[in-house]
Design a protein that fits this description.
The complex is a heterodimer of chains A (143) and B (114). Chain A is mostly helical. In chain A, 71% of the residues lie in helices and 0% in strands. Chain A is elongated. Chain B is mostly helical. Classes of the chains: A mainly alpha (143), B mainly alpha (114). Chain A binds chain B through residues 30, 33-34, 36-37, 40-41, 44-45, 47-48, 50-51, 53-54, 57-58, 61, 65, 80, 84, 87, 91, 94, 139-140, 143, and chain B through 7, 11, 14-15, 18, 21, 29, 32-34, 37, 39, 42-43, 46, 59, 62-63, 66-67, 69-70, 73, 98, 101-102, 104-105, 108-109, 113-114.
Chain lengths: 143, 114
Amino acid sequence: MTKDEHREGIKGMANPGRYGIERIAYLLMRLSGLGLLGYFIAHIYETSNILRGRMGWDDFLAMTQTTEGHIFLALVIGMCVFHTGNGIRIMLGHGGVGVGKPTRPDYPYDPASQNYRHKIGIYSSIVLAAVAMMYGMAVMFGE
Amino acid sequence: MKESTIMKIHYGTALASVGLVAVHILMRLTTGFADSLTYENVLANYRSVPYVIMLELILILLAVHGFNGLRVILLELKQGRVYEKAVSYGCVVAMIVLIGYGSRTIIMTNVGMV
């Protein structure tokens, strides 16, 4: 990272166009993780409405069974599938799977771990997330 | 606790959650998405002991995984002795509060306090 890039602060670090698909995967992993944690907390609160009886449950459910609610849930499905797919890729990478053999570092110093196997893993996670979102929307809007 | 041990717990909770959450979502598709969310259906789910055990496991696994993930993100942004301790303990407290709140719903509904 050059001095100029340091000056950009978090904006420079978060620039997804500069460091390839691995940086985009890094950002999406964190964003989807935070989004899923937020949804999880909201889901725990949402389901606690069952303690308010039938009226409380039906009132709260009516708020979520809307077009906006379904679109939000489709986003959650997408985040969940990407986080899972990319998470499995990271776990395999940490276990030494698909990172290549250690070799002498030669110019242009391409990192062996950032190879086509892991790139395919990232793209596959994005495609799977998109497919799952479409399936989720078909289920939610199909009823 | 060693960071390597924490990461093993992080990965273990992730893998276990994937399987259990898949079952949890499939349960919503058994009778149709909207029908499965009716008051009677949800209450019946909470009265089933095996399902309740699975819900409690999901709650604990996801809370541990989620708040440890948040801790990792926050520690990547900033470092320092006091800050790191505050983030770690804060995440543990938030995790315990969330597990407590979720368990309250599960237990009260299961024993018929609704």
